[in-house]
Amino acid sequence: MEQKQDVLDQLQQLTAELRGQFFQQLGPELPGLTAMHGRLLILIARTNGCTAQQLSELLRRDKAQITRLLNDLQQAALVQRHTDPSDGRRQLLVLSGQGQHVATQLQIKKRQIASKMLAGLTSQQQQHMSELLAQMYQNLLSRDI
Predict the structure, then answer these.
(1) pLDDT digits (tens, 9 = 90+) for 59-118
(2) Cα 33 to Cα 40: distance, rounded to the nearest angstrom
(3) Cystine design at 99: which of 51, 63, 95, 120 (Cβ 3.0–4.6 Å)?
(4) Of 102, 110, 109, the residue nearest 78 (C-alpha)
């Protein structure tokens, strides 16, 4: 039991440090916004034309929280909402030109942080770690505690 707690502590510590470093890198790109805003920008860049509901499901966050964050991004002129031509009730999210620029810069910084974090690990170790993390995630989704 102690071993499992140690792994959980390590994962939490790693996650906190990743968030801290990502937030530190975001400062110049997103003044007044948070790492979660940056995460949304990156996801919208990947899934151009997605909806707030899709982001909510993907991030496992409350839709109201996602909507508030999207409102901030829209107010900062980084995200635009367009009515879905196939369903007038839905709003599709797209990045503005400035939003695309910021998302690109954030992706570069994200890769730099990942490179720093993975320094000294072989490609085999990185692949194995990726497989282990995927398995742990699946375990949490499919098993009772």
Answers:
(1) 999 999 999 999 999 999 999 999 989 988 999 999 999 999 999 988 998 899 999 999
(2) 11
(3) 95
(4) 102
Domain residues for 96? 1-141
Tokens 């899709």 correspond to: 54
The pLDDT value recorded for residue 1 is 47
**40: Cα within 13 Å, side-chain hemisphere:** 33
Q: What is the DSSP string of 77-104?
A: TSEEEEEETTEEEEEEEEE-HHHHHHHH
Tokens at 117, concatenated: 């974090």
3-state secondary structure 35-76: HHHHHHHHHHHHCCCECHHHHHHHHCCCHHHHHHHHHHHHHC
What values do phi and psi take at 49, rounded to 5?
95, 20
Enter the pTM of the model: 0.81
Interatomic CA distance for residues 79 and 70, integer angstroms: 7
Overall domain count for the chain: 1
**What per-residue string of b and e applies to 97-121 under the rule 16 or more CB within 10 Å gives b?**
eebbebbebbeebbeebeeeeeeee
